[in-house]
Amino acid sequence: MFLSYYILFLIRIIFCFAQFLDDPQQPIEQYKPANATFYTLCRNSDLYDILETINNYNNRFNSEYRYDWVFLNDQQFTDEFKKLVKVSVAGHAYFGQIPSQHWSLPNSVDHDTMKENMQKMINDPDGAPPYADSMSYRHMCRFESGFFFKHELLQKYDYFWRVEPGVKLRCDVNYDLFKYMIDNKYDHGFTISMLEYSKTIPSLFETFRKSLVSLGLSKLLSDSRNYSGFVIDPKNGQYNHCHFWTNFEIGNLNVFRSKEYNQIFNELDKSNGFYYERWGDAPVRSLILSMILVKGKIKRFDEIGYTHPPYTQCPQEEGFRVSNRCSCNPDTDFTSKWFSCSGHFDGLEQQH
């Protein structure tokens, strides 16, 4: 008797499961991601580096959440690039080309002045800074500072997570960073911050100051409510060269689309400092964001293990590294280096 009831019970389970599979209207609970995407600027030659990074990010985070991924290039992506990347990403992959007006010399640039200044940088007796003679790097920095968020492929998203070829997450990320940003009302997130090469931005801060004055925004330079204290030395009112390292960042695209951000960028861009000097996108964006965002809107993700050669952020607490399968050596953590600004940021946040 018991056996017959048991068999009948199994038959009912199988019948119900079969109905579930056959009914296309049967609701299936799925994870609902935030309105966000990964974003990568790269070239066709970066294919195998970005494939390694995609697989790493899938393993550490995105296989669970399946966020989209937008890839931009100043040239057309090859069919091989698109084919191999599409089968690697956990979400949907989108490929776009940057408009030529966003990746070319402005008409106002004096070519002779640019070449002369570039040569001086190359011949610096203390050694040329990285990318001293690179035109493509200058185009990239200008694009990432003032145009990436205008690309059509990013228009439908509210948040982005910037990823560069060759970077790695060194620990599992066991929660949705995008939803964490949204739930906690953060507009910008980073892992590493550091000092910029001063010889690449000799006129940046003075140009920035004049830009704020011309826009009627000079009060932001000493506003205790924003992050001006992160980038400005209170003792002399000068730029301390701290910046958020932008090869890892999670941000609210609507901040970059804002009137204030674009007004300030456009004023800076008029000086052609990206070409006459070698302004990086990290110090430019850090200066603007530090002025227009109030305290509590920027998050340092100190628990995320992350490597962009040659630097690594590695969590120090052993229990965390074990539970999150971290593969980094805590002795290599960048946070305590003399040219790290992370401690300075943390101190500022504690005052909030």
TrEMBL record:
Classify the protein's membrane topology as the record does. Single-pass type II membrane protein
**Region forming the signal peptide:** 1-18
Output a single Gene Ontology CC term carried by this record.
membrane
Gene Ontology process terms (BP): cell wall mannoprotein biosynthetic process; protein N-linked glycosylation; protein O-linked glycosylation
Q: Which UniProt keywords apply?
A: Glycosyltransferase, Signal, Signal-anchor, Transferase, Transmembrane
Write down the superkingdom of origin: Eukaryota
What GO terms are given for molecular function? alpha-1,2-mannosyltransferase activity
Where found? Membrane
Q: Please give the Pfam families that the UniProt record associates with this protein.
A: Glyco_transf_15
State whether keyword Transferase applies. yes
Locate the active site. E249 (nucleophile)
Instruction: Return the similarity comment.
Output: Belongs to the glycosyltransferase 15 family.
Q: What is this protein called?
A: Glycolipid 2-alpha-mannosyltransferase
Question: What organism is recorded for this protein?
Answer: Eeniella nana (Yeast)
Upper lineage: Eukaryota, Fungi, Dikarya, Ascomycota, Saccharomycotina
